[in-house]
Each structure stands twice: as structure tokens, then as C-alpha cells.
Amino acid sequence: MAATPVSVAPAPDPQEAFLNVEGVRKYFGGVKALDGVSFSLVKGEAHALVGENGAGKSTLIKILSGVYPYDAGDIFLGGAAYKPANPHEAKESGIQVVHQEFNLLDHLSIAENISIERLPKTRYGLLDKAEMNRRAREALDAIGLSDIDVRSPVSSLGIAHRQLVEIARALQSKSQILILDEPTATLTERETKRLFEIVENIKAEGVTIVFVSHHLDEVFALCDRVTVFRNGKTIATDQIADMTPEKVVQRMVGRHLEAQMTDATKEQCYGEVALKVVDMCTAANSKDKGISFDLRYGEILGIAGLVGAGRTEILRGIFGIDPIRSGSVYRDGKEVRFKGPKDAIVSGIGFVTEDRKDEGLILDMPIAANVSLVNLMEVATSGIIQFAAENKQAREGGARLKLKYGKTADPASSLSGGNQQKVVLAKWLARNPKVLLLDEPTRGVDVGAKAEIYSILKDLAREGVALLVVSSEMPELMTLADRILVLAEHEVQGELQRNEFSEENILKLAYGQHQ
Amino acid sequence: MKFMKFAAAAATSLVLLANAAQAAEEKPVVGLIMKSLANEFFQNMLEGAKAHEAMRGDYELRAVGMQNETDFESQINAVENFITQGVDAIVVAPADSRAMVRPLKKAMQAGIVVVNFDVALDEEVKQQQGVELAFVGPDNRGGAKMAGDVLGEKLGKDGKVVIIEGNPGADNGIQRALGFEDSVKQYELNLIESRTAHWETEEANTVFSNMLTAHPDIQGVMAANDSMAIGVVKALESAGRDDILVVGFDNIDAVGPMIEDGRMLATVDQFGQDMAANAIDMALEVVRGGPELEGWVKTPIKLVVAE
Amino acid sequence: MTTQTSGDVAQEPRRVTLRSVLNNAGIGLALLALILFFAVFTEHFLTPNNITNILTQITINLILAVGMTFVILIGGIDLSVGSVMAFAAVVAGKAITLPGFGPVEAIALAIVAATLIGVLCGMFNGVISAYWSLPSFIITLGMLNIARGAALHVSDAQTIYSFPLAFEDFGSAMIYGVPVVFMVAVVLVLIAWFILNFTVFGRLLYGIGNNEEAVRLAGHSVYWYKVAAFTICGLTAGIAAVVYMARLNISSPIAGIGFELNAIAAVIIGGTSLSGGRGSVIGTLLGAFIIGVLANGLILIGLSDFMRQMITGVVIIIAVVLDYYRAKYTAS
User: Fold this and answer.
1) What is the pLDDT of residue A98?
2) Per-residue model confidence (pLDDT) at position B97
3) Is A405's CB within 8 Å of C218's CB?
4) CA C240, CA C188: separation in Å to the nearest integer?
């Protein structure tokens, strides 16, 4: 559909490349974030970086903008080696980033925000407000925002305008390269169009645009070339004119598409509907249309989608953490309205959260205390904890999940990521939940522990537990799930049965590329 | 914004009301500025002044206290407010003997009769600013010496005594400590230690217990107020000592029984309740055309001992 | 089934205690060093009378600090305890001096009044700060003023006196040279220690201080636990008021000014983290002893008031710096 590029810029000559990234590697501890990234930028082009979540785009941007140093490889800017020590140096070299999250100071004026990096001073060292406002005016005019008063606070602006203020700020100092990280994630279609017009103008003035987006149609509408990332590596750089969205998706996921399909043929018989969600709108979802699905006992339902598609919000809504704006939830056929996690737990639901450190574990407390957290009352007699019972519970839970630990009195922080995750699971399993919600159940978990967790979850399903799994890792969902719902922008884009599972199919739905 | 507007309107109407009241009744208005009303002494003084207003019935009293002993900014604000309201006289117990001179000078220049009582303004600063202002008040130093003398007479030469001081820096506390020291000199007592307990019972109890441990041969204690004297008496009781003499200052109700049964030797009454009333009487005399006050008008003090 | 668990049931609870003892060992050593120092350099420090004095003198601070430990463990703070103590004391003072009651009834009435006032003030702090998730620093600062004002209002700023003799006897009673009021404080410490280490309630307070969200998502009502912690803190302020009255036989509306800071200092010196989740009431006991021994010993040594204040400040800072290193050491 959107395969024809709008831009008709002449094919850039590789000789003109003025930013060269060659074999850059970056490690965080033992984890490879970038494993050989190479590409180049040509003056005045719009260059897209695409790839799955965690493929390495964000890390690369942070290296280019001076947030992280790189461990190996070379970067040349205008022929000279480029190794910015901090974001300030990167800006001095003419590389500006408009981040996905806003970096604006809400209570300051637009002018102050635009000039914050270099506030003009009067002769006496005081803030030169007139000059500041003049510069801000100029910066906003440059991107065609002449209807906004620079003296009003940023908090008075809508999301789209804030994005544009960020761009104005980035462009204020003469930049050679402007990196836009998911600039349209929060914009409406009309706002996106406006943004693209502005970007086209900037580009026409000779600024190089680096465009990071999950939306392939935008990539095809705006960019001249595209570089695909996968697993911390750059796969290839192509002229947009030579590509189709299907080809890009294929590059993103690799060629081994059907590899993960395991015993798909096995007939499953599920129980009654354990959890029914009808037209549920979470607070984060501003649309009228909500999410609906059924989850049966013994079934594993996967939820796929990109970051920001509203997956975690659904789990939090069901579990009673965040209020639901509209719609209803049925548990065993009865409508329920959980006022808080307590109600959800009482009705037999468990929730393995995405963020172990902030929501799942009490890191400084013993393993036993973490395992008993949900059902302390069961290891206590009239409010007094029976330590023998608590330790027994922890040891049994540990044995069931093949937990590797020293003593149950050791703090949870002494465990590896995979074993920490098993403690979180043990905490919920100690309560024998009927329905288990899991958000990114194997994030930060090594391969061996991953396989173990998968088999535990499958065992649970076989025992009749209903599982709802949110994951950004498609192979994970295809291994675990009996069905996958694919979300985009708080809407169900489609449902895939086991025989339809493929990364391509999931991504197409997730990127809104309907067949 | 709204609140400010409301406050401004309220303030204006208050001033108008005040003026109207003044015009209607022609009664002179006296502004009374005291120190912390959390202090029993000033609370009693306020009660006394209110009773006095009701009794005389020929003037209007406006009384202002402050948050705590050291919050002299609110006193300065009070003076400025009284100037704005155009009171006839200001009767003030300064929280700081230096800081209050300038605002009071402004009041005098505005034609307001100012009477300084309780704590004297600093002579040096008065001279610097060219202010001539009489002081109406008790002689804290002399009063303390009266109590100290009773102790000195009982103990005789080389009697071992300690002083429990008030807040460091508080003028009346300093004067009382000086008075005690005068007694020490006169009777050639042996002053072992002098420590603050910040006017407070519990702290005096703790501090004195520890002093007693360090110096079990203490024979007499001079406390700069009665609250602290009570703490000392309690410490003596729990140490099982009845051979140590205690004197205090202020004559608060709670020490009455202690004086009676000998747990305390003496205290000093400076008639705090009447002090403000007396000062108001003097101010009204001047307002009515009487002669200006001069120098130090001493108010009565009385030694209280068991009968 | 192969696991690498040690699985030694009997050993585990003992190890927990051992570790908490080790955690407190640093403070214990510091206290020991202080005691040795004063014993060597002053004549009277280790005399029975002086030890009795020290025990009496730390009692009120210790009682307040026990309650403060609960609040600080959940990551809060209570600045109002000194004022609440004064408020409870004057209300109880009014009650005990009511005409027409026998001494026993009057004392009982006073105790009920003081604890009730304490509990209500604490509950107010807890409900307001937990319900709206407001910083307890601000709410209890408000309560500091409310309770102080109320104390002055109720008492007309007058010292209340002449309590029944039996009350005074309780305040000065000793058993083998140990003041009974101090024993009351120690019993409170033991109760608090039991609650914090052996009950579901105590466990969840630690949990809230460490990771409130994890506790909430585990289905516990964080709100009520927070309210309970503040209520306990108020209760101890009420109990401290009773002890104050019994010891001094008066109720003063200006009692307890600055006591909150001493109580917080005892808790922090005792190794409880201001950000919550880590610490123990046994540490608080040691912290209160350090403050009390320091105040006592520095007077015995004859140091001036101002030097004394400076040294106390220095000790608090040293304690917190040491705690930083201890936390770092245990984390690694």
C-alpha cells in the first residue's frame, strides 16, 4: 500500500557519507546490546532505523547522542573520529535528538524550555528575557508554529505541540543531524502529517534526519533509506525505493520463520471460560472501542503488540490496580469489579508483573519472605509468622521451580535474574491461582531458565490454570501460547491460531499492516 | 489570587471599622505587645491586662503575642500594624532589646506614646538612634539577688551552689543569672557550675540530676525560673536528698505548696499580672497630658518565703 | 530431584537473629566505647546512682523512639510526637485533677486520656498522609502546631500540678535501682521487637518500607498498615506523656519541645534507614542509650552547654555516615 515513497530525492551517493558507523559494539555487563552495527548517513537524507524492540536502535541513538560510550568499533563524523564524552559534546558536534519521552520542564515557559541549554544573559549576568523570547519566537517560526505564545507554560500545550517544541529546541542550535525517536507515537494522524511537512522542510535545508519508528508506512512515506536492526546487529541498508514493507518485516525477523512451531497439532481441550473481558477500556486508552476476549481454564492466551499498544494496561486493569474506564470483566461467568489487587487475588487471580525490581520483589528481604508475601496468613497463626512453615513453603516452591539458591534467609537480591523471576512465580504459585496473568515473564532471564519457566507455565496450563501472557518476544509467545491476540493502539488488530503463528503475521498486525 | 484579594478587602474593612470605632467612642486605644503567650508568665499578664481594661473601662485594649520567645519579627510587624491603625499608645515587652528600637522610634515619630516594660531596650542602641524612652519594669537582677541572698544567708561563706539558667541570650535570663552571681559574690559562695535548661522542667530535671552526680556536695541551687526549680526539686526527691536548698523566680502557682513544705526555700514575685496593667496606666497618663516618663520606673517585686 | 538448597530448617531462624545482632554490633561497640571513655575520664559515671539517672533520663526519649521506629520503617516521619506528648499530658493533667475522683480512678482516667489523645493524633497523621499519599513530613509538621496550640489552649498556658501521691510514687519507684518507668520503656521495646520480627503486621511494615508497590500488588492494604504505624507512634507519645507526668508531677504545655528530633536521632543512630525498610527497634534502644549517655557524660566531664550541643550534633552525623558504609557493606 504505502510502498511508494513520497520523497523524490535523488539517490544519495555513498561517497558523500559524512557519518560512518563501523562495527560498533556495546556491552552492559555481560549483555551484548550492540553486536556490530555499521551504517552511514548521507547529507540531507532521511534515514530510517527499524527493528524489533531490543534490537539495538535505542542504544545506538544513545551512543550517537553521547549518553553512553561505545566499547568497540569506530564512528567518523565528517572524516574525524567521533567519540562524544557527554550529551553536551554531541550537541556541539551538531547531533540533536528528540526523545520518545519528553524532556520538557512543564512549569517553565516555552521560551525558557527552548533556551534552557544556553540561556541568554544581559551585561549584568541576569537572564535576558527579551532576547530569550525573541530566539524562541524565531525557533518556533522556523517550524511554522507562529500561532503559539512563547511565554505560556509548556503545561498549557497539547502533546503534539510539545513534540514540536522539542523539535524547535533541537533545531535552535545549528544541527547537522536530527534524530527523531518515535516522534509520532503519541500524535494523531493530522498532527503526524504536520510534523512530516516540517521535517521535509528541515531536510530541504540540508539537515540529515534519522527517523526511528515502528510505523512502516511512515518510514516509507518519509525516508530515503532504511537500515534494519536485529539482535544488536545491522542487517542491511537499502534504498526505500527498492523495498516493500513485507521485505522490511522479513529482514527484521530473519528468514527462519517457521522454526519455532512445536507440537502445534496436539488437540487441546479447554475448560470453562475462566475470565471474560468485554469491551474493556483502560484509563490509558482514549478511544471508545475497548478490548474483548475469553480465556478458558487450561488455555494460554498470548498478547502481542508493540510498546505502548496497551498490553500491560489490560493486565493492570483486570487485576484491579488501575481503574477501568468502561467495559466489564467476568470471572467464572460472574461479573466482577475489583477495587484492588486484594479482590482479584481472593477470586483466584495472580499477576506476575513486568518489573521485578519495582513491583515484584522486595529485593532486600529474604527469599522466604518474598515467597510468602501473597499468602502470609497461611504461614501464620493468629498473626504471628511460623518461620518453620514459611521456610517449608519457600523450599517447596523452590524445588517445584528448580530454584537455585543458598538459603531461604538470603536476600532476593542475591539471586540471578532468572532465579529472581522464579521467586516471583513461586510467590503466586504458593497461592494456587486459577488464573495467572504474566507480563514479560522472561525479561532479563537467561536461556536455560527461560526454557524452565516455559515448561512450568505449560505444566500449569495442563493442570487447568488459565494463563494470560503478555510478551514482546515473539518466539516466546509462539512457544507458549495456544492463541495470540495482537494489539496496536489499544485495539485488537487480530487473533492468530497456532497454525497461523509466524513472526511475520504478528508483526504485520502489530504494525497495523492489515492484509 | 482570590485569597489575596479577600484578605486585602478584609484588612481594609478592619481598618475602617477601627477608625469608625475610634471616632464614635473617643476612647484612647492602647496596643499591648507581649512575648510568647505559650509562656505562663505572659499568659497571666494578658489576663491581668484584660481584667484591667474591663475595670477601668475608659480605654480600648489591643493585645498581640508571638509564636515563641525568639520570633521577634512578629513584634516588629505588630508595631508597624499599630502605627497604621493609629493607636494612641503602644505598651511593649520587647523580645529583643536591640531589634525593637528602630520600629519603636518610628512609632514615637508618628506621635504615639510608647512605654517599654518587662525588658529594657538596649541603652547603646537607644543613644545611637537618638531615642529617649523610659523603662517600666522590675529589676530582674535585683530580684534574683533577693532570692540569692536568702540562700547565701542560710549557707554562709563557701556554700557550694549551682545556677540553672534560662535561654542563653534571653535578657531576663541574663539579668537573673547576674543577680544570682551578685549574691554569690556578696556571701562569698562557691559557684561550682552554671548551666542552661531552657526554662523547661524536664530538661532542668535531667541537667540537674547530672550536675548532682558530678558534684554530690552541692548545697544550694538557684533556678532562673520556677518551672526549672520544679524540675530540680523532683531530681532531689528521686535522689533522696533533702539537704539541698532551692530558690526560684516568678512565683507560679505550682511552687506554692513547695515553699510551704520547705522543698523550696524562696521565689520572687514580680507581679507579672499587674505589670502590663501598671504600664498601661502610665501610658494613659501621658496620653492625657501627664509628664513624660523618664529613666527606669521600677515596678514592685517581692520575695516569697515560707511563713 | 536435584536442588542446591541447603535445606537446614533449624538453622535459618537463628541466622536471621544472628544477622540482626551483627547489624547492631557496630552501634553496640560505639556505645561501649562511650561508656568506657566516660568511665575512665569521670569519677561518678559508673556509680549506681548515675546509672539510675541515665536510665530515668532516656526513658521518655526511648518510648517516643519506639513509636518513631515504626513510622520511619515505612519510610515516613513523625515530627509531632513532642507536641502530641504535651497535648496528651495537659489533657491527662486536667483529667487527673478533676474533683470528685479517688486517686486510683483519677490515675486511670489520666492514663486513658493520655493514650487516647496520642492514638487520635497519630491516627489523624496516618489517615491524612496515607489516604492522599502526602509526605508525612508536612502533615506531621502541621500536627506539631495543632497539638502544641491545643496543649496551650486547654491548659491556658498554665502548668498543671498537684497529682495524687500514688502517681508520683509510680514515677519515682525503683526495683533494684532500676526505675519502673524505664522498665515500662523496655517492655515497649520488647513488644515492638516481637511485633516487627514475628508478626505478619511487622513483616508487611518492612515490606512497605522496602517496596510499597510490591506489597500492594500482593493484595495487602498498604493504607491501613500505614495508618497503624502512625497510630502506634501516637500511642507511644501518649504513654510518654503519662511517664512525664509521673516523673515530674506536673503537666506543662511547653513540655517536649524538640523531643521529636531526639527521638528521630535515636532511631537513625540505631541504624534504621530514613528511607524505610531497614532497621530494628533493638538498634533504637541502643541509639537512645548513646544519646542519653552522651548527654549525661558530657555534663559529668564539665563541658559547657554549647560544646555539648556541638558534640551531640557531630555524633549524629558520624552515626549516619557510618550507617551509609554499613549499608554499602551489607549490600555487597
Assistant:
1) 84
2) 81
3) no
4) 11
B262 and B198 co-located in one domain: yes
Residue B127 within any structural domain of the chain: yes
* Predicted TM-score (pTM) of this structure: 0.77
B159 and B201 assigned to the same domain: yes
Say how many domains are in chain C: 1
Whether residues A338 and A379 share a domain: the answer is no
Q: For residue A144, how many other CB atoms are within 10 A of its CB?
A: 12
- Within this chain, do residues B14 and B30 fall inside the same structural domain, yes or no? yes
Task: Flag if C219 and A344 touch (Cβ within 8 Å).
Answer: yes
Flag whether the ipTM exceeds 0.90.
Answer: no
Domain identity same for B280 and B133: yes
A304: cell is 502481542
Q: What is the CATH number of the domain that holds A323?
A: 3.40.50.300
Q: Whole-number mean pLDDT of chain A?
A: 84
Nearest-neighbour CA in chain C from A383: distance (Å)? 5
Q: For B137-187, how does the pLDDT look when each residue is reduced to its tens digit (9 = 90+)?
A: 889 999 999 999 999 999 999 999 999 999 887 788 899 999 999 999 999
Give the distance from residue C220's alpha carbon to the nearest chain A alpha carbon, in angstroms: 6
The chains found to touch B (3+ Cβ pairs under 8 angstroms) are C
- Asked if residue A406 belongs to a domain, the reply is yes
Rg of chain B taking only CA atoms, in angstroms:
22
pLDDT at C1: 38
Q: List chain C residues with pLDDT less than 70.
A: 1-24, 327-332
Provide the number of structural domains found in chain A.
2
Does residue A211 belong to any structural domain of this protein? no
Report the C-alpha gap between A102 and A113 in whole angstroms.
11
Strand B296-298 and strand C160-161: the pairing is: unpaired
Examine the domain organization and report whether B110 and B148 are in the same domain. Answer: no
| Residue B10 pLDDT > 60 | no
- Quote the pLDDT of residue A101: 64
Contact C248 B206 (CB under 8 A): no
Sign, CA dihedral A11-A17-A18-A20, equals positive
* Distance, CA of C269 to CA of B152 (rounded, Å): 44
Any alpha helices (H) in chain B, and if so which ranges? 2-25, 40-56, 73-85, 101-109, 123-129, 140-155, 171-186, 201-214, 226-239, 256-260, 272-287
Phi-psi region of A39 (alpha: psi -120 to 50; beta: other; left: phi over 0): beta
pLDDT computed for residue A265 by the predictor: 43
Whether residues B59 and B185 fall in one domain? no
Same domain, A332 and A476: yes
Count how many domains chain B has: 2
Are residues B61 and B167 located together in one domain of the fold?
no
Rounded Cα–Cα distance for residues C303 and C310 (Å): 11
Residues A365 and A506 in one domain: no
C and B interact (at least 3 Cβ pairs within 8 A): yes
**Whether B and A touch (3+ CB pairs < 8 Å), yes or no:** no
Of A398, A416, A432, the position where a domain reaches its end is A432
Contacts of C210 in chain A (CB under 8 A): 362-365
Neighboring chain C residues of B227 at a CB cutoff of 8 Å = 159, 252
- What b/e readout covers A28-40, taking b as 16+ CB neighbours within 10 angstroms? eeeeebbbebebb
Return the CATH number at B98. Answer: 3.40.50.2300
Subunits with 3+ C-beta pairs closer than 8 A to C:
A, B
Q: Are strands A273-282 and A291-296 parallel, antiparallel or unpaired?
A: antiparallel
Cβ contacts (< 8 Å) between C204 and chain A: which residues?
376
Owning domain of residue A443:
268-348+436-515
Q: What is the pLDDT of residues A125-158, one digit of tens each?
A: 888 888 888 988 988 887 777 788 888 888 888 7
Helix (H, G, I), strand (E, B) or coil at A26: strand
The pLDDT of A249-270, averaged and rounded, is 58
| pLDDT of A31 | 67
Distance from the A435 Cα atom to the nearest Cα atom in chain C, whole angstroms: 15
User: Which residues of chain C have a CB within 8 Å of the CB of B202?
Assistant: 60, 244, 247-248, 252, 255-256
